[in-house]
Structures are given as structure tokens and as C-alpha cells.
What does this fold into?
Amino acid sequence: MAQSDSSNRKNTRARVAVVAAGVVSPLGFGLNETLDSLRNSRNCISPVTRFSVGQCRCKTAGQVSDDRLLATQAEAPRSRRLHRASHMMIQALTELVAQEPHFEPELTVIGTTSGGMSYGEHYYRSLRQAGDLRRAPTWIANYPAQKPVIDAQVAFGISAPCQVIANACASGTNAIGHAFECVRSGRYQRVLAGGYDALSELVFTGFDSLQASTPEKCRPFDRHRTGMVLGEGAALLALENLDSAQRRGAPVLAEIIGYGISTDNFHITQPDPSGIGPRQAMERAVQSAHVAENEIDYINAHGTATLFNDAAEGKAINRFFNGVPVSSTKSMMGHSLGAAGAIEAVVCLLALQHQFLPPNMRTNRGRLFCAQSFRILLASVEQMLRFSCAGLKHESCNRRHGVGDSPGKRR
Amino acid sequence: MSLAIAGMGWVTPLGSGVDSVWERLLQGHEASATTISEPFSEQAYSAFRVPESAMAGFSYPRLRRASVISRFAAAAGLEALRAAGVELNSQNAERTALIFAISNGGVIYTRRFYRDIVDAGAQSASPLLFPETVFNAPASHLAAILGITGATYTLVGDGAVGLAAIKMAEDLMANEALEHCLVVGTEEVDWLLCDAYRRWRLLRRAPPIEPFSKQPRGMILSEGAGAILLGQDGPFTIESAHPGGCFTKRAEAEKILERTLRDLAETEIDFVVSSANGTFVDQAECRALKVVIPNAIVYTAKPALGESVGAAGLWQIMLAAQALRSRELPPVLHVRSTGSLQLPRARMSIPRARRAIVLSCGLNQQAAGLRLASD
It folds into this structure.
């Protein structure tokens, strides 16, 4: 394994290419299905079937089909013991490796919030209710957050050191952002980055107890929004020094050009209503990319549809950007927490590659919560897109853009 | 790149405060074990817990409802800043990054939260407990106390996560806008954790931890926090943070450790702070050490302090720094057989020691190392 190059440090600014990607989410398995769902504004929210939600206010989520997930990996050794999160990670990495079979990361940076939480639930419930604990060693072994990452690596013979970031909702974005900084600094040539999370009863009930999730439909940025709907999935990006990628003739799908991070200390579950957290993150991303805010063509917002998030985030977008098209694709697939930032980066990648703007479903233009300069996308729009939103730049355009998110908040 | 250790903070089952804990280790003290039980189970376990006296007088409104893991972390983090003479304000807080290393996280509140759901249904779930169950709750609390508005990361992993956090800090500090990076490792112990590790055949029911035994008898869990403030200036330098790697089978751990040691031992090494804890880790490290640095003096504090998992890596670095500072190593307790390793059985003087290796092999497939030097 290559050690990072300590001779290349400050002031080195390598360009960072995305050379491959893989995704599984309620929108579909792989980039093509995801693109199709985005273009067709497909509603991928359904009644929760994995556990009882009879006592919860919210009863829906964006879910990945187990039948398909397990069917695609039935041949893998010890496959039955692995957590669903491992299967999702393997699925995403399978797609990525199919595009770039020779991508050997020096480091893997992955975001998550819950690891193999449902196995922890099985274990505790069995203990508490004097149930069958024969599978307890398997549950315990597959519970740690790094396990799905290592499982996926093992499936493809990768043994890179892993950094698993658990920054709540920002985990996936932070993982890609940190990986981007690692390559840009010149210390690494290739980093695998992304995020994953699988639905679990504990987390679902937690958001329900906070009344952050909705018993109705998810309507980001709508004045009558009533909360989020959870989701799940995994997404991975292969990041590589652009020069290195071009030298070996790797396909360059997009370029990451900036990253911003901020910490909002207002409250453990609520963002500062002024929107200072997301605003600082966006400002820093744009500064990091050395572009002007009016060069940004599209913003894929966090847009959870909670009262607090959308108000603060909308305010920040309004103040910093003037009329840039915005959408929250969580309206279609739910909020997949640690995977969200990574899946949304893939959404942006697809938007750039195929030159369209993904929609924000169910929001009524007449009920937008804030000023008219807030340009929400209510349908998929074909548009010349020079570059994006949650952090990517289209390879064919000599423009740049930034990525930003604010860690530490779950709502 | 090299990073300097500007300050350190320590909360352990042997008390809090770097100098105080170090002195007790030098004197050969070990933490007292507490028995943890659970009404619905006949199983009881021993654990090394942080004594109440260690946190006496430590109070912040923000931490009023927080779990002990957040309180340990905040106490250690604040001590590290004080030791470095760094006072964060609106200017330098933006230029300070915060990285947390955690393994099991806020397991006490997580268990309580889920117990209510299991016993009485989802309607009884507490909205006050839920936010404290997330991995990054301790980081959020400390960031708020310190007013940090820049980069805050929580890394999750096994016993090697502390060293992974240092590696991440090294990568972050490549950004010239950062002045400091505060790295905090923290963990709390709970009956559920003990039961889980016992079912995984890694836990011993009662002390002692017997390091490097031919037959691994298991570890005792502990809790607390360690904090290291990294900057450009300080009495100790992290010359190399090695990312190590991931192993799929326990037998593979030795190979990763061997490779890590080879890279770190390119210069003369005076001693090694090992992560030996009475499990399979010990033999993996022992074999790797025998191949790469057969004459190394090896120290582990886990018989005295227990296995604190997420905090353990930070504790090991602090132990190495204190040994380099005081030119002494504490005794390794409860050694039954040493094999060919040189383990200090009594307080050992190391008058010319300048460099140490810290080796961390986790229980969940991760391993890493680093090399520390004194000025």
C-alpha cells in the first residue's frame, strides 16, 4: 500500500477527477435506473415493511428492495450473514468496479450514521425478551460501522485503510469532501469515497419521536411542509488525481472543484434559524473552488422538508445565490442520512452528464416558503448545465463549482 | 508531514489529569474494577469505570443532559487546550479543526432509548435521549463549548480509530488555513457492550488483563477520554502517521502490523507502545515485533487502564509522549510470560529515549501505527 506522500503538502493543488461511480437507492440499482427515476419524477416512497411502525406517526420511507439486493449477491461467500448495509455497499462498488476495474484506492473514506444498527436491535431485543441468541455472534460481528466498508473492499480484493465518518446527515458529503481534499493536497492519488445507511427501527423511531418525520408526504421547501421521510442506500465515487487519470486513459466523468464545511453550534438537533451553518459551508465551498456564486448552475439542496432545516437552508441559499435553480431530490427517495450526500453527489453527476435538472416533487409553487428569488424546480428540466450543485463540475466545461454541507445536525 | 503535540488531556479509570494519571501508572497502580449487572440477565461483568472523583466540579450547561461519553470528551479536550495555553476565540476557533475517535459511542443512552421502544412501543421513545445516541453527539457538544465553527469530524472504528484520527488530522493540517487540530478519543462502558464482547469471546469476566499470554484470556473494558492538541509547535513530534490497513481474518493482522512496523522503524526506535489487551491482538503484535524489531522494549497500559477502544489509541500516544518526557516507562502489569519481548516488569529508566512507535491493532479488522519523537 502506498503511503501518502509527505513531500507534497501545502500549496499543492491537484485537480480531482471522478472516474467512476456506483449507486443503489430507492431510485434504483445503478446509474441508469437512477437517471430514469430522476427524469420521470418517480415517487420511490412506500409503506415501511422492515419493522412495525404501527405506533409511529410516520409510516413511509424510501426503501431498497431486499429481493433484488440479495438476488444479485447470492453467490458471494458468507453472503447470508452480512448486513443489508454491506450488500448495498457491495452493490455500489460492483457498479463502480465495472467501470474502472483497475482503480486501486490508497484510502477509503465513507460516511454513515448507523452502521449495522438493525443487527444491534435484533441482539438487544433477543436479550431483553429472552429470545433466540444463537445468531448473536453474527449480529455483533456485523454491527460495527466499518464492517460494510470492509466487506465491500474484500469482495474486490481491496485492503485500503478506511476512515468512516459519522457526522450525521452530512456524513456522505463530508466523506467525499475530505477525500477530495486528500487528493487535491497531492498526498493521495486515488481515494474511494461515499456513504451508506440502511433503515433501522431505532433511527426511524428516533426521528418520529422528534416529530421530524412526517405522517404526510415529503414536501421540501413547501410552506405547508410537515417533515422528512427517511430513506436508505449507498453511493460511491472513485476520485483520482486528474493528471494521473488522464495519463492512464481513465474516463473522467466530472471534476470536483471545491468543498466547504461548517459547524453549526446552535442546538444539537436544530440549525441556527439564520442559516449561518449552510451559508458558511456554501461560501467556503465556492471560495475553495475559486468561482463566483453566479457561476453555479444548480443546487441540490439538503431539503429534508423539516420546518427548521428548510427555513434555515432556504434563507442561506437566498442570501448567497440569486435565482439559482434548487431542488431536493429527497422528495423522491427520502433522506438516507449517511448516504444522502453521496447519493446526491451521484444525482449531480448524472445531471451534469445528461444536462438536466432533477425535480423537487410535491412542492406547490404558490406555497413556497420564501421569497420569489428562490427558484425551485418542480419538474425535471432539460437545461445546459455547465456545472452543478452538490459539488461536481462537468468535464467538458471549463467552469467550476463548489460543494457544501453542514455537519452535526440530523433534522 | 510532521505534526507537533501542543497539549494533552486525560480522563481514565485511574483518575483525570495527564500528570496525575502518569504518576499513578509509574507507581504500578491499576484501576479498580466495578461489577456491572442488568436486572434481566444473570450475567455480570467487570469493567474499569471512571471514578466520580475524576469528574468532580466539571459542569457545563450544554452537558446537563449529555451522556458521560460527552462529559469525558469535553473534560479531556479542555485540559489539552489549557495545557497548550491555547484559548479559542472567534478568530482562531475557525482555524481549529476537531476530530473525534469513537468506537461504540453513546451506548448507555442508546440502550435506554431502545429499551423503551422494546418494552413499551415506539410511542414511549424519548425525544430527549435520541439526539444523544448519535455517534457525533460528543463532538457536537465539545464544538459548541469551544465555539468551533470550522471542520468537525467524528471517525468511527475499532481500537485503531484513534490513530486513524491522527492520520486524518495530518491530512487536514495540510490545509494551511488551519492552526490547530484537537483530536479526542472517547468511550463509555455499559453492560450491553460487555455482553457483546463476551459473546465474541474477547472479554474476560474479571481482571486481570494478562498481556502477551500464549493463551489469550480476554480483556476488560474501560472508559474515559484522551485529547491531543496538534499544531506546528510542541515538545513532541508525530514524525509519521501510518494508515495501516484492514484485515479480514485475524491471522492477517500480523502482516499489516509487520508492514506498518517496517515503514515506521526506518529510524532507530527506543520503545513501542503496544495495544496488547489479552486477546488475539497480543500475539499478532508480538509476532510482528519479533520479525521487525526483535529487541524492542514494549509497553502496554491495558492491564492497568483496561481496553477503552475508541479512546485507546489516543491514550497510547499520550503514554508514549509521557514516557519520552519523563524518560521512564511504567511497569507492565500481570505479565505471565514475555516470550522474547522485553517488557518492563518494574518502572524502567530510558534515559536516552527519543523515539517511540505506537501500534494499534483493533478488534474489528483495523490496524495502524505512528512514530513519535521528542525534541
About this structure: Chain B has a mean pLDDT of 95. Chain B has two domains: 3-231, 236-374. The first strand of chain B starts at residue 3 and ends at 12.
